[in-house]
Specification:
mainly beta
């Protein structure tokens, strides 16, 4: 009997130790959209995330649990480090095919799973990395400016800095540049992007209002070579979103859009 008790104690300790290395989190929400002049609709979303950690190795499993056919895996990733070598494995091949032909999304299915092996070698104030796609990545922070330069099939350079209370980010990808500016004026957080989108956020954490001016989207004809569908035109419009944390632990938000004169109410909780 003593041996049996001792064995039970050891097995309990082992299982407790294993559970201690696993973190579980999740989120759920229900939304009601009056859809302007169209019929109203209600939608739901619930997700769980499991993160297991052992030393420098992490495994993350995501699950979508609100589907009609039961829980479905949404992602499985593992990463580990061996000295200067980082190994990252995406073990779940999600469905990336877009069913809509006017969304600008991916028109044919592609394999999204794979393994990336990168080597980081510090040189002075910069770090040089090489991944399994053959890209060479140079990054570092110089005089307060963080710069990342990727040389490969598509050369990309990103620079980010905080200058006189303003957050500036500039990205050049294959010769095309995009940028964003963010600052706070009298307690209002304002963001401006090269796409001409302007966002202003008012209030404090847990009780905010965000006003956005969203630019028009032009018609784009998709191609088989680029593996994308057509993009439907969208008129310039504005949105106003009000969000407030409730004492129940949930949050309630209301979003109005001038695009279709719709109001969306959403109750959500994260744990």
């Amino acid at each position: 009997m003593k041996k049996l008790i001792a064995l039970f104690a050891v097995s309990t300790l082992a299982s407790t130790s294993a559970i201690a290395g696993v973190a579980i989190s999740g989120a759920a929400s229900v939304s009601y959209d009056d859809n302007g002049t169209l019929a109203s609709a209600t939608s739901y979303d619930a997700d769980l995330s499991f993160v297991g950690t052992a030393g420098t190795t992490t495994v993350t499993i995501g699950m979508d649990v609100d589907g009609s056919t039961g829980p479905a895996t949404s992602g499985v990733d593992m990463s580990t480090t061996i000295g200067p070598v980082t190994i990252a494995a995406d073990m779940f091949d999600e469905v990336s095919l877009e069913s809509s032909t006017v969304s600008g999304g991916q028109r044919t299915e592609t394999t999204d799973s794979g393994v990336t092996v990168s080597l980081d070698v510090p040189i002075g104030g910069a770090t040089v990395g090489l991944d399994n796609s053959g890209n060479v990545i140079v990054s570092g922070t110089f005089s307060g400016v963080t710069i990342t330069h990727t040389v490969g099939d598509t050369t990309t350079t990103t620079a980010a800095a905080a200058i006189a209370g303003m957050d500036v980010s500039i990205t050049n990808k294959a010769g095309a540049s995009t940028w964003s500016l963010g600052t706070t004026v009298s307690g209002v957080a304002v963001t401006l992007t090269s796409a001409q989108k302007v966002t202003a956020a008012f209030g404090l954490a847990g009780n905010t209002m965000t006003v956005s001016a969203i630019p028009a989207v032009a018609v784009h004809t998709g191609t088989v070579a680029d593996n994308d569908w057509d993009t439907a035109a969208v008129l310039r419009h504005s949105t106003v979103a009000i969000s407030r944390d409730l004492t129940s632990g949930a949050s309630l938000s209301a979003t109005y859009s001038t695009l279709d004169d719709s109001l969306t109410l959403k109750a959500a909780v994260a744990f």
